[in-house]
Design a protein that fits this description.
The protein contains 15 helices and 18 strands. By secondary structure, it is of the alpha/beta class. The chain folds into two domains: 3-229 and 430-454, 3-Layer(aba) Sandwich (Aldehyde Dehydrogenase, Chain A, domain 1); 234-414, Aldehyde Dehydrogenase, Chain A, domain 2. A seven-stranded mixed beta sheet has the order 12-13-14-11-10-15-16, with helices on both faces. It has a six-stranded mixed beta sheet with strand order 7-6-5-8-9-17, with helices on both faces. Strands 3-4-18 form a three-stranded antiparallel beta sheet. Helix 2 (45-61) packs antiparallel against helix 4, helix 4 packs parallel to helix 5 (136-147) and helix 9 (244-256) packs across helix 10. The longest helix has 25 residues, at 78-102.
Amino acid sequence: MSKIITLNPATEEQLKVYKEFTLNEIEKTINDAHETFLVWKSTTFGKRAELMHKAADILDEDIGELASMITTEMGKTLQSAKAEIEKCAWVCRYYADHAERFLEEEIIDTDASKSKICFRPLGVVLAVMPWNYPFWQVFRFAAPALMAGNVGLLKHASNVTGCALKIQEVFKKAGFPEHAFQSLIISSSKVEKIINHNYVQAATLTGSEPAGAAVASESGSNIKKTVLELGGSDPYIVLKDANLDLAVDQCTQSRLLNSGQSCIGAKRFIVVKDIYNQFLEQFIKKMASASVGDPMDNVDLGPMARKDLRDQVHQQVTDSVKKGARLELGGQIPNRPGAYYPPTILTKVAPGMPAYEEEIFGPVASVIKVKDEKEAIRIANDTKFGLGACVFTEDLEKGERIAEYELEAGCCFVNQYVKSDPRLPFGGIKTSGYGRELSYFGIREFTNVKTVYIK
């Protein structure tokens, strides 16, 4: 019998051993989901909203226990974990309050006696989710999907299996039908079989490019809808008229958030030469002042989620230095238990280096000097990714123009680090994925946009 073992990344201690689902258990889970959908799809928006508000209340009430589970399984600071739970409650309430309006039928004037557009649920939707925001990534899918009348199956990252089961428990305690949201305790090798199942109508994945390509390929061969949110190498442009203190503060927060393990975390810092030296001096000082330690304590950074991920980040730093990058801060694995890695800054970063070409999913900043705004925009877009981007300037009209017309990314911010918000669509372009989560765009992704024509 295959097993999944979870570890505490701060101490390397074993947390729990879980038994993987058998093929029969997987089949039963999918069948139960489908049978539930046949009833759930006809549930009123009022009833769905009532249950979703209860889920939000449970998240608030159990925040200490749930946040501790996040911190223990993947290492983010307890303070950050609590903020994540609060955001999950927000997205539940947001869709509870707005789903009916977002999916309201639209009457269209045609030559018919009556013609309209309706939004109807698809059925069973599979969510393949990552470990870095183990509750938020799931709830930003689950809240709109369930409010639209779909049911959800979750294949979570193995190292946060406890979180997966806690999420299922939240929906059950809130009064949702028992099989409206179920966690599958399986390895990635079983995902293909689930996508192939006749009752599974669509899939969504947040994670790496290879994982996204695999899910998209399998779904495509079965003609099933997908939404993908993949990696990013987000550029942060700092122009000569930027508020430097603000820029340094926002850049540091974004790069160190979640120990650098965020798809929309700042990765490449593109600074015009006029203020480059000032920015770098302040940036080094700010990054160096961040405290690293036990995530249960009041620190800025805990460990990374796993030692193999930490070692991969270190290899990217080492390879970049070998190719000519300059190490300004950090870059050494600390001599202590756990998957810790220090805040790290690289300069003289150029094409051909991992720090320029790849996503570094850890607390590592690549600082690049450019001569002017035009070169900054060119280098910002010189990436296969397109998730988030940011520009710092006191000229808000110019900042808006650059964000709207110049930067090639799905989420472009001015004078504020990139973050998700239930009220705004979230997603990327290029190899950062396709489709959108959140906002009314997100809830419509897994619906049948149906034309009804009556003559």
